[in-house]
Inverse folding.
């Protein structure tokens, strides 16, 4: 008789981050269905789902509701860092665990959260090192005006400085602001080797559209020159961006077609969000089945019991003809959420051994 | 520790909270009320009337420089940062604002009292140190005046040690600092010189 394992899902598929939330939700549900259809597994997973509708103030009460009204102790959910911060008190009170499957800026290590997507030493650092080697060390930093943009650009400035590079400019755009004229005008003058964009949502789209125009107007920015680097562009947004995303170079633990990691080896996913949420459910099922020494079971799943972050593959991929093509990869990297353990920082990446499309 | 702190009287003090409406604000207000402070919540900015508050609690995650009626680091009262995101960038910004203490969000049933005391002590120590530095800077700027005064006194046939001792004696007699006394001596000599010059001019 297989044991019933109830888990919570807390995503807002219709909110501002709908595309990412939907991808996470899909990955989690795919993992649930794969576990359930495998007769050899000791657990059968049932799902209790709540949708905060993108309202930050609903995450905490809905998480409390899941933990109070169901048997679920594991909740897979949250896209933004602010929503994750909101649910942590609810998890602490009820002894629940959040499985967080999105890239974030780091500087957190809650014992009530397991982080299955990348932090800065697993996305930003390798991406910058790739950029230095391929294009140069003069970087232009842009981002949305909130914690992700601020912190990613702050770390980037430090990394560029440490590499004797140069920051040619830095600008933060209000969330949702699509007026990118000033940003483009500054870029035109600064002529950097690459642009690191931590813009999100509509601002990101407006910027990439304007970049596309700039590339046809100014030969310095011609196709293949001065690439846009991003740690948050994934397949989730690719289709809706169309040609504007061509040439963007992104870093993450997964791109469509690449293998999944840890307890999800053998499965597939359409984006890193989907992959990380799949891995989350696969890992929590494995932990529940293992019982006994939690730290040892975590380590077997690729979760560092000290930081609660996952060891992740690092892939660098460029958008070509509407899809990511992997152009660099490294051996799995252990997370260093506080950027305090230099031995976990990546050196230079090996070029891709094979083309993954 | 040699210094003893009497039980601080915080009753009746005003604390302003700069944070969007949130459970953390309720928990914070409840603790402040229990201690005896009057609290007010403001969002998204503090009005100029905030200058009169005794304490300010501010959201280190979402606040920015423009929300305060004073320049960064020049708050006229102790400030406590409410920190959610422990990123170096945000912490640096909160310190730049002049946070003397911090509370980690979510705020629960404790922590506010110690934050108030630590913030006040830190603020006062910082203010006292700044005042002392300003006084020392002013004295440093008067070095040349002291040298001139000693030289003037030496011109009356005294050794350097005697001249300096006389300067100190004069400062004590006039109940001035050495620098003020030196300034008087120089001013007196300048007047004399001016008078002499005028007289000479008349003579010529």
């Amino acid at each position: 008789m297989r044991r019933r394992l109830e888990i919570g899902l807390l995503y807002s598929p219709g909110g501002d981050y709908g595309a990412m939330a939907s991808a996470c939700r899909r990955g989690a549900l795919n993992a649930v269905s794969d576990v359930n259809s495998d007769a050899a597994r000791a657990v059968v997973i049932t799902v209790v789902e709540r949708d905060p509708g993108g309202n930050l103030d609903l995450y905490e009460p809905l998480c409390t509701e899941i933990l109070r009204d169901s048997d679920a102790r594991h909740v897979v959910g949250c896209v933004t860092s602010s929503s994750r911060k909101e649910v942590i008190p609810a998890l602490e009170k009820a002894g629940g665990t959040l499985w967080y499957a999105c890239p974030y800026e780091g500087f957190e290590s809650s014992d009530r959260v397991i982080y299955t997507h990348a932090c800065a030493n697993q996305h930003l650092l390798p991406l910058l090192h790739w950029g230095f080697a391929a294009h140069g060390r003069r970087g232009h930093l842009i981002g949305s005006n909130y914690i992700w943009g601020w912190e990613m650009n702050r770390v980037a400035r430090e990394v560029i400085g440490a590499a004797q590079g140069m920051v040619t400019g830095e600008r933060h755009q209000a969330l949702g602001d699509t007026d990118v004229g000033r940003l483009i005008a500054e870029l035109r003058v600064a002529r950097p080797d690459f642009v690191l964009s931590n813009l999100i949502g509509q601002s990101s789209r407006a910027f990439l559209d304007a970049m596309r125009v700039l590339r046809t107007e100014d030969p310095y920015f011609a196709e293949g020159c001065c690439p846009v680097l991003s740690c948050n562009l994934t397949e989730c947004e690719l289709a809706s961006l169309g040609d504007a995303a061509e040439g963007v170079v992104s870093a993450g633990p997964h791109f469509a077609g690449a293998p999944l990691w840890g307890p999800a080896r053998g499965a597939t996913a359409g984006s890193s969000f989907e992959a990380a949420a799949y891995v989350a459910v696969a890992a929590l099922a494995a932990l529940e089945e293992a019982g006994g020494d939690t730290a040892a079971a975590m380590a077997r799943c690729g979760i560092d019991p000290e930081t609660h972050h996952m060891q992740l593959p690092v892939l660098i991929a460029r958008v070509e003809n509407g899809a990511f093509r992997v152009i660099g990869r490294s051996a799995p990297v252990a997370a260093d959420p506080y950027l305090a353990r230099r031995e976990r920082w990546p050196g230079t990446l090996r070029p891709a051994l094979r083309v993954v499309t | 520790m040699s210094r003893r702190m009497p039980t601080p009287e915080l009753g009746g003090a005003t604390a302003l909270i700069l944070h969007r409406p949130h459970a953390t604000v309720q928990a914070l207000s409840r603790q402040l009320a229990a201690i005896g402070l009057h609290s007010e919540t403001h969002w998204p900015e503090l009005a100029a009337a905030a200058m009169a508050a005794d304490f300010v609690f501010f959201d280190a995650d979402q606040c920015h420089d423009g929300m305060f009626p004073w320049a960064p680091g020049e708050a006229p009262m102790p400030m406590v940062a409410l920190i959610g995101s422990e990123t170096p960038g945000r912490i640096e910004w909160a310190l730049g604002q002049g946070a003397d203490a911090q509370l980690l969000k979510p705020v629960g049933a404790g922590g506010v009292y110690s934050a108030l005391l630590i913030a006040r002590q830190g603020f006062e120590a910082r203010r006292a140190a700044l005042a002392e530095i300003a006084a020392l800077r002013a004295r440093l700027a008067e070095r040349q005046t002291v040298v001139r005064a000693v030289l003037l006194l030496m011109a009356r046939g005294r050794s350097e040690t005697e001249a300096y001792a006389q300067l100190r004696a004069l400062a004590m007699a006039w109940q001035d600092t050495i620098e003020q006394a030196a300034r008087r001596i120089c001013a007196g000599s300048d007047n004399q010189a001016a008078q002499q010059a005028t007289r000479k001019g008349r003579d010529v």
